[in-house]
Amino acid sequence: MKANAEEESFKTIHEGSAEILVEEHVFYNPVQEFNRDLSICVLSTFSRIVQREKLDAQRKKWKEGEPPLTEPELVAGQKCEQGLRILEALSATGLRSIRYANEIPGVKEIIANDLSKSAVASIEKNVKHNKLEHLITPSFNDAMTLMYTSTHPDKRFTAIDLDPYGHPTRFLDGAVQSIDDGGLLLVTATDMAVLAGNSPEACYVKYGSVPLKTKACHEMALRILLRCIESTATRYGRYMVPLLSISADFYIRVFVRIFTGQYACKKSSSKQSMVYQCTGCESFTLQPLGVLKPNPSEANPNQIKFATPTGPFVSSRCEHCHHQHHMGGPIWSDALYDEDFLKELLITVEMDQFKKLGTIRRIYGTLSVIREELRDVPLYYTLDRLCGTLKLEVIPMMKFRSALLHAGYRVSYSHACKTSIKTDAPVSVLWDILRCWSKLRPIKKERLIEGTPITAIFSKESSKEYNLEDIHPSANPPSRKESLSRFPENPAAHWGPGTRATLMVSDNKMLKSVQNQNKRRKGQKDPKQTKDTESPKTKQLKSSEDNSQNESVHE
């Protein structure tokens, strides 16, 4: 009876197969259900791949006369001795670990760790409530200390999930050392204002890269995080292979495998680039930090040579509009996802046991768009920004994509933006297409002001005429034809990361944005009432005091 009375004092939350009891001071964010659902699908796919790789390794060592090899049966909720050993380094309520244990087949052990005593107490209560003591071990420890003490090969984890409040970089050093060879690292970053270019100096301090304020800022954020993981791993003779990289809502999420290999580490510089962006027309150019040159020999015809590129790849002035450049980076300029893994992940998503996930429709739509993305083309332009630069009426997306396809170039969307143009065509071709469009939809002559990008670009004629009439058969991608959930809108008001260590649940509404609305005006009197009764100096002093008080409360 006493236990039931205690449980009644908690708020019960249902998500997936988990039922958790939370108090007001424990952090729970319902916004991230998509994040957790997707992670379950990725880890389930990874679990199958790991078992297949282990079986292949055993077959190579198998000899006649020995017992036949059989693949273990993977059942969600049951312990698998050869399964995944997962660390959730920052567990909070334990919801993610409980869902992993209940819904991912082939799990050996899950360490649900947190540095907060109240959070660990909540984890222990919820693990018992869901009857998962055989799979989940609560841990009260500093995440970095826990990982640094698990670097021995016998203690390493098969998968490590890092989902901190803010930036994850301080945990990466321990994570890349304490993960198995071929293990999966799942990393979330929620400090999008820093990664998207609002504070380039802060981004350099945290991630070692300078972001640019560009329409492709969400993909650049992914590439900055991936480059940070890669540079951390290469210090220890390890490297990463991105399986999936997603920009969603207010955060980015990457899934990468960590391998060991000095030779592969040497190729890292050729997968990282600096970015030059024109301050006028915003066209960008990438310059790799290193290049690989063929250097065949009789002993090894596939031998390559590591070389330093010559440059810079741009002149002091933009060739299109004659403005100067900003320089950002370095960023990860290789592929954001693995084709084979994504193909198998889509098979997982279509399985019956995963169709019950709350965000499965969105997961399938997002993965379908990612699968259509050009893997070898870093960053993208946006159609509205291109037309806005030239003060043009926005050209229909299908016409623009068709013009590129008719000209022999490839084009795709980016999952990060619904108006994105990701193409291998040089930017000069994009301007040529818009020059052709301007003949059909002329701009006003008074907008041709000397010294602006629009005047410089329209001063040149199009190199050829582009087909803007016929819609190319491939212009409409399958994900759009099938009306998949590709770019869903925010499902609720105040959609954001929430506030750390405060009440996060109230009838499924986020409170952080509400609490911070007009925070600088709280406590101040109506200006109309004080206008005639107080001097300007007095009003200025009071305003200053109110602002400082509000800022200290917020901090």
Explain how this protein is built:
With 555 residues, this protein is of the alpha/beta class. Among the domains are: 15-57 and 73-269 and 305-310 and 323-360, Rossmann fold, CATH 3.40.50.150; 380-472, Phenylalanyl-tRNA Synthetase, Chain B, domain 1, CATH 3.30.56. 36% of the residues lie in helices and 20% in strands. It has helices at residues 2-8, 33-61, 95-103, 117-129, 143-148, 169-177, 192-195, 200-207, 217-234, 262-266, 339-349, 360-372, 383-389, 397-406, 427-440, 453-458, 478-481, 512-516, 527-530, 536-554; strands spanning 11-15, 18-22, 79-88, 107-114, 136-140, 157-162, 179-189, 238-248, 251-260, 272-278, 284-288, 291-294, 304-307, 325-332, 381-382, 411-414, 417-423. The chain has a 7-stranded mixed beta sheet with strand order 5-4-3-6-7-9-8, sandwiched between helices. It has a 3-stranded antiparallel beta sheet with strand order 11-10-14. A 3-stranded antiparallel beta sheet has the order 15-17-16. α6 (169-177) links the parallel β6 and β7. The protein is globular. The model is unreliable at 501-514 and 527-555 (pLDDT under 50).
Instruction: Tell me roughly what share of residues is in helical segments.
Output: 25-40%
Give the rounded overall mean pLDDT.
Answer: 88
Give me the CATH architecture of one domain, please. 3-Layer(aba) Sandwich
Q: Low-confidence stretches at least 5 residues in length (pLDDT < 50)? A: 501-514, 527-555
Counting DSSP E segments of at least 2 residues, the number of strands comes to 17
CATH class of one domain: Alpha Beta
| Main sheet strand line-up | 5-4-3-6-7-9-8
CATH topology of one domain: Rossmann fold
CATH homologous group name of one domain = Vaccinia Virus protein VP39
Q: Major beta sheet, specifics?
A: 7 strands, mixed
Shape: globular
